[in-house]
Design brief:
Number of helices: 19
Structural class: mainly alpha
Main location: membrane
Helix content: over 70%
Protein name: Amino acid permease
Radius of gyration: 22 Å
Family: Belongs to the amino acid-polyamine-organocation (APC) superfamily. Amino acid transporter (AAT) (TC 2.A.3.1) family.
Keywords: Amino-acid transport, Cell inner membrane, Cell membrane, Membrane, Transmembrane, Transmembrane helix, Transport
Pfam family, one: AA_permease
Order of helices and strands: HHHHHHHHHHHHHHHHHHH
Largest sheet: none
Number of domains: 1
CATH superfamily: Amino acid/polyamine transporter I
CATH class: Mainly Alpha
CATH architecture: Up-down Bundle
Distance between the termini: 6 Å
CATH topology: Amino acid/polyamine transporter I
Length: about 450
Amino acid sequence: MERYFPRRRGCPLSQPTMKRGLKNRHLQMIALGGAIGTGLFYGSTSTIALAGPSVMLAYLMGGIVIFFIMRMLGEMAVDEPVSGSFSYYASKYWGRFPGFLSGWNYWFNYVLVSMAELTAVGIYMNFWFPDLPQWLSALVCLVSITALNLVNVKAYGEAEFWMALIKIAAIVSMILLGLGLLFASGQPFPENLSNLWSNGGFLPHGIWGLLEATAVVMFSFGGIELIGITAGEAEDPDRTIPRAINQVIWRILIFYVGTMAVLMALWPWDQVGTQASPFVQIFENVGVPAAAHILNFVVLTAAVSVYNSAIYSNSRMLYGLAKEGEAPAFFLKLSAHGVPVRGILVSSGITLIVVALNYFLAGHIFLYLMMIATCAAVISWVTICVTHLLFRRRCAAEGRATRFRSPLYPWTNVLSLVFLAGVIFFMAQVPDMQLAVLFLPAWLLVLFVGYRCRRRQG
């Protein structure tokens, strides 16, 4: 079976190697791109409905925990910058099954994210072209981004740089424009600010609604850990990865908490509609129609950007799994430019499923994909927390100091694990999310069966 599953970390590679073509500016924007996507621009509709103005707290709490998890991953990635980092670290410090589970779960998670983003592309295109089939928009995006990723890693990085730049400029502009609208009357204390505590109060559905919203909010942060996947292709990872990760917390404060604060102040939370993006609708309601078209372009760019990163990360994860012997050697093949072409084509091909789903179930699948992807993301984050605990224990036993230490170890690990358990619990309390929670143990069982079959073949 070695023909299909090579030996772990020992199979000879008589082929091109991956290139370190991602520069510091690429990594900075990739870190931002992973944090700004459909979960914020479109998925925020459901979180606003659950929590009202207190959705700001939901993003803040979730963001702090994600920052802690990013620091854990960053410590391992700086110490050992490899492609497909999740699987490699879990396998080395925890065991073969956690390595297998984390790698294939992350790949599956990003397949779901890819499907959600392709669905969102169709939704945003319908804002301009109501009669355009969603499946057609999804197909055009899939083919274009797949072709881009087949070129080289620099092409991916450059495209992500510019798409992330568009998102950042738009959010900053939106916040400034929103503040301008709030203070347009010339009053030092704008009347609109009362929207933050009127219409049922700051916590219209109580603490319970806030905690349920926090569970949904976590989808917005899915993908932010992509910075760890880039370690194997980053120039000077010792410097660029810590810089990118340390900036995550203030980005969360500005892009998530700041944006929600402006949106909730501009318009009563219970009047935010569910068509297109809440960003687009609110700007239409305050009489800025041109801004609505600009913002629709931005949210479309955001969806394409996250799909771009999904194709990139999935191909690298399959490559990393193949190097560990946990995926077929078929995925070890690199192009002359160091691109895992087969991983890209297989990952992209599987997301074609969503094109069919959009044909038969247009308008109904986004929330389902979002919730299942959140469950898969929780598995990845739990794996990072536990693997980091074991990593630090190994380092202490060997007397080895790391260069980018996670703060407040091990308390942040414990806090993060408790928080993630709470996310699953509150997802189980929301009717629309219960199917995803039921899916979680079934998916873990599938992974375990797949692992046992792999061991028998090996």
